[in-house]
């Protein structure tokens, strides 16, 4: 088998890159370890930056998002007994975010890929990458008991944090930066109307809480839990009680509870690998970086990596600009580090850390107070939340 770009992983990064390249007439093969149903069963975040919304439209997969997604002009910060609204639109020159679940984005991309006839191999095992630096790169895998090899020009490693692509890079090439936070998020999905028409991020002495949503009838709520907590120890009743205790009184009184459809605990981590390229292999999305979910940046960073690699590959195939390939990593990392900073800052400001003394608690409250009391502070939060601009590829 032969293709131009072999894409490892059919998560949002791999599928979006595949769609954009396919539309541009560049051949791709996507190789995914899991089944389509398994990929769609993962519940992840649900806030899309303007740049990602535009990219999905450009890829021709924005129709359902535009019909069913919820455009949000702002969100709320609750702390110290206060509720403060950040007006995203007013403080970012008119930008907004779109609330539309990652699962739905993935479903739309899968449907578009199937309709386009471009090939995806699901349930591939023993995926291995070869000849990344010298000679012609190739990927081998086993599918339905048969060993296969696909040779290609480039490999896009879109296989998430635990994938093979990053591990295929020889030792000593990559530098890793990591912070593991001493807590996780317990998330519940429920068919209940949202407690508020916008998201609420709450700093509370019992720990962080977030009220989010997927639609006018489906909610996604989170509470901070200690690292090592087990989801089995959290009945629905215990979850709702804890959530209510962390919300401002008038919000807690309005909260409508119901049976959970999904409940899981996610650890919080910041992680970046440098560089994001090795020879003809490029890392995208979770394969190269992780952010804690507090700024809703994970999926959006994946989209900006896709945007960068797509624009570079267009110029490579159409204009022979192969020198641009060397710039992929530096262009991505500039934006990634800024999103890492914002996610780390939101996480640091809103969670209760196990070693927090009264001084650090006052510092958190004062920092939040300072930011929301100042136009510059509100602008800083807004421009990061709606997403910093994508760099042009000249
Ligand atoms: N071979 C082939 N596919 C693999 C392999 C492998 N060895 N290992 C993992 N995969 C697949 C996974 O099954 C998954 O479908 O790669 C895909 C990676 O998808 P994601 O983890 O969703 O990563 P990505 O597409 O980069 O999405 C960005 O943003 O908010 C975050 O974590 C969130 O998933 C989200 C991410
Ligand atoms: C979500 O809806 O799952 C969500 C929203 C905002 C975040 C994180 C997760 O910051």
UniProtKB/TrEMBL annotation:
Organism expressing this protein natively: Pseudomonas cuatrocienegasensis
Keywords: FAD, Flavoprotein
Flavoprotein found in the keyword field: yes
Protein's recorded name: 4-hydroxybenzoate 3-monooxygenase
Domain of life: Bacteria
Domain FAD-binding: 2-343
Gene3D superfamilies to which the protein is assigned, alphabetical: D-Amino Acid Oxidase, subunit A, domain 2, FAD/NAD(P)-binding domain
Lineage: Bacteria, Pseudomonadati, Pseudomonadota, Gammaproteobacteria, Pseudomonadales
Cited InterPro entries: FAD-bd (IPR002938), FAD/NAD-bd_sf (IPR036188), HB_mOase (IPR012733), RIFMO-like (IPR050641)
Record-listed E.C. numbers: 1.14.13.2
Keyword hit for Cell division: no
